[in-house]
Here is the input.
Amino acid sequence: MAESLVDPLSVLDTALILRSAMILAFAYILSRAATALLARISERAYGYRITIKMIIPLLKFSIYGLAIYLILHSVLVLSSAQALAVSGLAGAALGFGLKDLVAEVVGGIIIVLDKPYQVGDKVRIGEAYGEVRDIGLRSTRLVTPDDSLVSVSNQLVLSQVFNANAGSQEMMVVIDLYIDPHSDAALARRIAFEALVTSRYIRLSPSHPAKVLVKDFPFYRRLRAKGYVYDLRHEFDLETDVTARAWLAFKGAGIEAPRGWAAIPA
Here is the structure.
């Protein structure tokens, strides 16, 4: 009985370890090369940028999945007893230290299958907001508005994710402008609407309407301009353009910021 319980590590001789390492290294190089190629193609195929980038995480998971399959079924070729022993070791490892890793990988698989967001989307995950640059096995990388690269654990996809564009090239941008409650609201609304619809970054169509809403608060009046930017990468360009031109027109029309607030430069 003791002789049948062969240590599974004994089958991992030098040749098998080298072959496994070569398979993983090839998978890594192939994944990086394919990702770089598709990213480059997506930037040239402007209208299909996000569609092409959607393929990247699927391709990466396929490459690494094939690599793991080759290692398990073609390299190790464990016997039933050895497979049982390895399963026991793996279960113990998962129980003591790899639960988070497994949860991250499961989260990555859910992202690929359920598609709560994809490469190129603008999302908020936890406290992080930005454009999805890469979806890996363990984490998702976002580029924030400050051009910082943030890695977010794929475990968070199991909680709450806010997707601003859901795979579309366009996305809605909300711009808040605050004025004195005694200012002419109708005039301010017309000015804000004109600034919005004349922006060079706006996307106007029956399915992409622009509007300005007004709401009164005790010490100020809020104008909320809502419109679609034609390319989500210009989200903050649209916000800056509309804000600057609206305030320049506000000043010319005698519309002031709420009293006690610092003046907003044009």
The chain has two domains: 1-168, 171-252. The first strand starts at residue 122 and ends at 125.
